Amino acid sequence: MYLRPGLSRGISTDTWFESCVGEEGRKESLSWIGKQRELFFSYFKELVGKEVTVELKNDLAITGILHSVDQYLNIKLENTRVVDEAKYPHMLSVKNCFIRGSVVRYVQLPPDGVDVDILHDATRREARGA
Amino acid sequence: MSLAGPDNFPATSLADNLDKKLLVILRDGRKLVGILRSFDQFANVVLEQAIERIMVGELYCDLPLGLYIIRGENVVLIGELDLEKEELPPHMVRVMPSEIKRAQKAEKDATELKGTMRKRMEFLDFD
In chain B, what residues touch A67 (CB-CB under 8 Å)? Predict the structure, then answer.
C-alpha cells in the first residue's frame, strides 16, 4: 500500500491519482489524494512568475508567465502567446487567461523548474503520512 | 472561500475580470465573447451581451446570443480581450450569418468527404 509510483518516472498526475484510488480503500485514498493535490498545488505555487507552456486537451498550447494556481490546479497565465498562432487567430488579442484545471494535459516547466530531490522527499514524507 | 493563502499568494479568482469583455472557449470548440457578470469556484460563468464567434478559414461572424450562463465543466479557457488591439488579424473578413453557415457546412462536408475517401482507401494500408 505504501508502494507509490515515483515522481521521477514522470507519470502524469492524473494517472498517478487514479492508480492511488485503485489500490486501497476509498476514504483513505481520497485523503491521500487530497494531500497529493496539495503537494502539486504547493509545487505549482513555487513556479509562479516562471514561464511555462500549458498544453490543453484540445491540443491548444499556450506559453505564458504563471500568475497563479489554485487547489483545482486551475491556472492563470500572463503575457500569453499561443504556440501555433496561425491556427488560432482568435487568441491573438488574449494576453492574460484563466485555464480550467480539468482541461490541462501537460504543463511544460522551465528546465530549472523542478528540484526532483526535494519533490521526491516531500512525496515520500507525505506517503508515510507525516 | 478565499483562495488566497495566508502567504498572500495571488488567487486564480476571476474577480479581476468582472465587468470586462472576455473570450470563453468551450470544450466543443465554440468561442463566446461577452461581459463577465458573475462566476463561482467551478468556473460557472454568466456572460452578458454574449456573442458566438464563428470562424471558418478567413471568414468570421458574430452571432448575438444574449445573456448566457455557462456551466463550468464546459469551459476550457477564459481570456481577457485586449481592447486596444484588433480582436482578429486584419485578413479576417466579417460576413453575414447566412454566409458563415454556408461556409461551415462546406467545411463540414469537405471533412466528411476526406473521411470517406480515407476509409475507401484503407485497404491500401498507407501510413
Answer: 10, 12
Low-confidence ranges of chain B (pLDDT < 70): 1-9, 126-127
Q: Which of B27, B28, B77 to mutate to test the interface with A (most CBs of A within 10 A)?
A: B77
Query: What are A88-107's pLDDT values in tens digits?
Result: 999 999 999 999 999 999 99
For residue B9, what pLDDT is reported? 63
Residue B127: per-residue pLDDT: 64
CATH of the domain at A76: 2.30.30.100
Dihedral sign of CA atoms A115, A118, A122, A123 in order:
positive
> Whole-angstrom Cα distance, residue B19 to residue A114?
37
Question: Is A4 inside any structural domain?
Answer: no
CATH at B55:
2.30.30.100
How many other CB atoms are found less than 10 A from the CB of residue B24? Answer: 23
Partner residue facing B76 (CB), from A58, A71, A89: A58
Q: Compute the distance between CA of residue B62 and CA of residue A72 in angstroms, rounded to an integer.
A: 32
The pLDDT-based confidence of A26 (bands split at 50, 70, 90) is very low
* CB atoms A71 and B3 under 8 Å: yes
Asked whether residue A39 carries a pLDDT value surpassing 50, the answer given is: yes
Q: Which of A75, A90, A102 sits opposite B12 (nearest CB)?
A: A75
Whose cell is 458566438? That residue is B52
- Pairs of residues, one from chain A and one from chain B, whose beta carbons lie less than 8 Å apart: 88
